[in-house]
Design a protein that fits this description.
- It contains four helices and eleven strands; from the N terminus they run H-E-E-H-H-H-E-E-E-E-E-E-E-E-E.
- It has 263 residues and is an alpha+beta fold.
- Strand 10 and strand 11 form a beta hairpin.
Length: 263
């Protein structure tokens, strides 16, 4: 009984000291076994806990780890040196030659110098003294043959309404019947037009001016058309003509029906 009490006290003390020994600041402590000295008269040879220090691993942050990386095409360029890009214009700029940058543009040497700004030392002089500069007009949009066909249901002007602009009277004094109509522009952009007569109209007697041109934009100036019938006094009765104004690039047309009475 006397030996059991000191042994129990030793084990209890080791158990109380072990947690504090494992969690000291600055290092991680792990319990380890230690054999007591044989010279101790009170304790038997029983394994007890001791403290051993284990150093915690430290994290290391590495900056700019990819500084030396380059794509393959940059590596090739670095090995071969700087790449020289050729000039836009060839060295041989002789007018008319295959390498002439102005070839095919229809510009002579004076116009070419003005168009390209001349040399590095006289660009302003070349621009101000370009007497032979060629100025080109904007080409109209091309369109195919135009068929002058009356609209199926929309008539923009009709003699049946009794409007004297469309129901004409022949004048023996002037040997013709004449009127004028006005067309307001109705498109957001300039539109080309072509004016002509339908197939059932005698185009040898009816005349319209102009026959082609461009309408202004919406809100701009209107376009006036002069209509004439060039018959004679011996052609008694009524004569009819249908005018169609076509916008070939807009798939649109205006239709006007005229009548001339020769009494």
């Amino acid at each position: 009984m006397n030996r059991t009490l000191p042994l129990f006290a030793a084990l209890l003390g080791a158990a109380l000291l072990a947690p504090a020994a494992c969690f000291q600041l600055g290092a991680v402590r792990a319990p380890a076994l230690r054999v007591p000295s044989s010279s101790s008269p009170c304790l038997p040879k029983v394994a007890t806990l001791a403290r051993t220090s284990l150093a915690a691993p430290r994290c290391q942050v590495i900056f700019n780890s990819n500084d030396d990386w380059k794509p393959d095409h940059h590596k090739d360029q670095a090995n071969s040196g700087n790449v020289d890009v050729g000039d836009y214009f060839p060295d041989d700029n002789t007018p008319g030659s295959a390498s002439d940058p102005n070839a095919g543009l229809g510009l002579n040497s004076g116009a070419a110098a003005a168009a390209t700004g001349g040399g590095a030392n006289n660009r302003l002089d070349s621009l101000l003294s370009a007497g032979n500069t060629e100025i080109r007009t904007v080409e109209k949009a091309a369109h195919g043959p135009v068929e002058f066909k009356a609209h199926a249901w929309r008539i923009d002007g009709d003699y049946a309404s009794g409007d004297p602009r469309y129901d004409l009277k022949y004048s023996a004094a002037t040997s013709l019947a004449e009127t004028e109509i006005m067309v307001e522009p109705n498109s957001m952009t300039y539109e080309d037009f072509v004016a002509g007569w339908t197939a059932d109209t005698d185009a040898s007697l009816w005349e319209v001016t102009p026959t082609e041109g461009s309408f202004d934009r919406r809100g701009g100036d209107p376009t006036f058309f002069d209509i004439r019938w060039k018959g004679s006094t011996v052609m008694k009765g009524e004569h009819f003509g249908t005018l169609v104004i076509v916008l070939p690039n807009d798939n649109f047309s205006y239709t006007y029906k005229f009548r001339v009475t020769v009494s």
